[in-house]
């Protein structure tokens, strides 16, 4: 179901709205890993991410009757997850981040394009991934979140606007600032490593 077509998804949503639990389960299966990874990168805690993912789907199920086809289902679902996660982060009062190497799905090491990279290249690649994770950890949650939605979830500007409840122009300006901050942070951290 990885390549779910909009028509197929619309059919599942319509059936789920009519009370078909198997249709809703299919929607959950389609989105659960992506939603979990998104929440995990915001919270940095697997147990909390699991709970928040479950809570987000529960809220989506309860509100499904109010969803309208003119809204992107993915944006609507990520907005629920966004709001649920931000509520926890506000209560917790601190924001943590995990490295990409700790992501779920068995990706214990970063993927390398070359089947047999040299050890020095593997080390450099691993350091780059670690630097990127540290860089993202230092960004404010708003910048980190908008980068995750655009770069990892590949959402359009309008989908991000709908997910975060902001204007499309605000998405573009926040994304530009987030990218600039990420580049500056990455360059600063990589400069620190060379001084060691």
Descriptive account of the structure:
By secondary structure, this protein is an all-alpha fold. It is 72% helix and 0% strand. Helix 3 packs across helix 4 and helix 6 packs across helix 8. The longest helix is centred in the last third of the chain and has 28 residues. It is globular, with a radius of gyration of 18 Å. The N and C termini lie far apart (48 Å). The N terminus is likely disordered.
In terms of topology, how is this protein built?
Layout: H1 6-17, H2 21-43, H3 46-63, H4 73-92, H5 119-138, H6 141-152, H7 157-164, H8 168-195
Helix pairs in contact: 1-2, 2-3, 2-4, 3-4, 4-7, 5-8, 6-8, 7-8
Residue-averaged pLDDT? 79
Domain module tally: 2
Strand content: under 5%
Instruction: Count up the helices.
Output: 8
User: What sequence of helices (H) and strands (E) makes up the elements?
Assistant: HHHHHHHH
The coarse silhouette is globular
Task: Report the structural category.
Answer: mainly alpha
- In CATH terms, what is the fold-level topology of the largest domain? Rna Polymerase Sigma Factor, Chain: A
What do we call the CATH homologous superfamily of the largest domain?
A: RNA polymerase sigma factor, region 2, helix turn helix motif
- Name the poorly predicted regions: 1-5, 95-100, 103-116
Largest sheet: number of strands, sense, barrel closure: none
Name the CATH architecture of the largest domain: Orthogonal Bundle
Helix content: over 70%
> What's the level 1 CATH class of the largest domain?
Mainly Alpha
Q: How many angstroms does the end-to-end distance come to?
A: 48 Å
Beta strand count: 0
Radius of gyration: 18 Å
């Amino acid at each position: 179901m990885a390549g779910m077509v909009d028509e197929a998804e619309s059919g599942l949503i319509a059936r789920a709205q009519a009370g078909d639990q198997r249709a809703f389960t299919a929607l959950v299966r389609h989105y659960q890993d992506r939603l979990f990874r998104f929440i995990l990168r915001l919270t940095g805690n697997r147990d909390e991410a699991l709970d928040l993912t479950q809570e987000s789907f529960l809220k989506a199920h309860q509100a499904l009757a109010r969803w309208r086809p003119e809204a992107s289902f993915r944006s609507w679902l990520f907005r629920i997850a966004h709001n649920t996660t931000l509520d926890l982060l506000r209560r917790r009062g601190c924001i943590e981040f995990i490295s990409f190497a700790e992501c779920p799905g068995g990706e214990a090491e970063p993927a390398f394009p070359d089947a047999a990279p040299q050890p020095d290249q593997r080390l450099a690649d691993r350091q780059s991934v670690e630097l990127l994770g540290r860089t993202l950890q230092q960004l404010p949650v708003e910048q980190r979140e908008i980068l995750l939605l655009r770069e990892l979830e590949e959402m359009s500007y309008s989908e991000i606007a709908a997910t975060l409840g902001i204007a499309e122009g605000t998405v573009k300006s926040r994304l530009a600032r987030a990218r600039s901050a990420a580049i500056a942070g990455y360059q600063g951290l990589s400069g620190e490593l060379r001084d060691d």
